[in-house]
């Protein structure tokens, strides 16, 4: 389902030959040139875009439109017409559009700050997009091939923190731990000092980013077809050790204690679980999967509290507002729905995407914004205080690997990972402030 830009945008030589070819065996290094342009010369032209360069007219992603067969506007219209949204369930073509609320998408809450290709996200499953996590306004973790990379926007440098290309062995000798080999990372989460990753064949990996090696790893299902679809790090509702929850295609949600790396609970559901998220107080669990309905359950017992209906296809994303009363869900029917768990009979707002499913959802830590990402090209930042009727539309090109607000700093930064073979990169945006003009001095 990938829509690779290099297949669409043909580079036209003007003076020098800048025909790009991606080296699939280069370990994510990026470009090779088919003509006389040197690697260092291409790095200078293609690797980064600053806020100042963007204001002066350079493309945000560094795409050289002046050398291509299309203008940016022309190519946008092509993408809007030709992009095919993946659907699991057949439905009328005029389905949810009728109930979607009107949204004014001309606001600007975040300003473009920088773009780097020194870290380039990759995707191994076209439906799963939780592959980018920020732990501060300067620190972001992103999945790249068989590695998890840490990028420091302050130092402008990247560092590998987890490599799963070979054998991965646990350092903790606890029950259930077992070595793994050559893991394709399907999902991940990072919080504070803990990194958790799920694998394409049911793998589960826990690592402390400031310590060598992997603390705990195992295969959750024993079934190589039961991909780990989602992982979440959260605090126990009774003040106990940090917990991690994992959802798999075997229809089971599992919870682990991160102090002893012990399995605490296993909850079974009637369909493959594509996503789950825990409420801020740790008491409620939203469970979504291969069903048009989704479930609110008790996080301690797994008992169903409510079944919520309204979506028309399978769901792959959810997020809780920090107040714990609202949960957002993203679906292949191209909508995000907002639910008040105190009155879950129907969604109180329905937000429509532009070209595809809503595959990523994140509320800002202060609850002011909701970021909703599509599979490609669009990230929508909604103003919660305006009833989701105002939004900023971040318009880019390429498959989106993930979005993340920085925590605990007023959501100062917003990061977007683009997983295109040629134009793959990490985009950084900064929250608008009255002193935003000062970035020109840095």
Please tell me about this protein's structure:
This protein is mostly beta strands and 442 residues long. It has a domain at 121-374: 7 Propeller (Methylamine Dehydrogenase, Chain H). It contains four helices and 32 strands. It has an eight-stranded antiparallel β-sheet. Strands 5-6-7-8 form a four-stranded antiparallel β-sheet, with no helix packed on it. The chain has a four-stranded antiparallel β-sheet with strand order 11-12-13-14, with no helix packed on it. Strand 13 and strand 14 form a beta hairpin. It is globular, with a radius of gyration of 21 Å. The two termini are 40 Å apart. Residues 11-45 have low confidence and may be disordered.
Structural class: mainly beta
CATH class (first level) name of the domain at 121-374: Mainly Beta
Q: In percent, how helical is the residue content? A: under 10%
What is the 3D form?
globular
Q: What kind of assembly state do the chains in view correspond to?
A: single chain
Question: Can you say what the CATH homologous superfamily of the domain at 121-374 is?
Answer: YVTN repeat-like/Quinoprotein amine dehydrogenase
Rg, alpha carbons: 21 Å
> Number of helix segments?
4
Keywords: Repeat, WD repeat
Region (Disordered): 23-45
WD repeats: 308-349
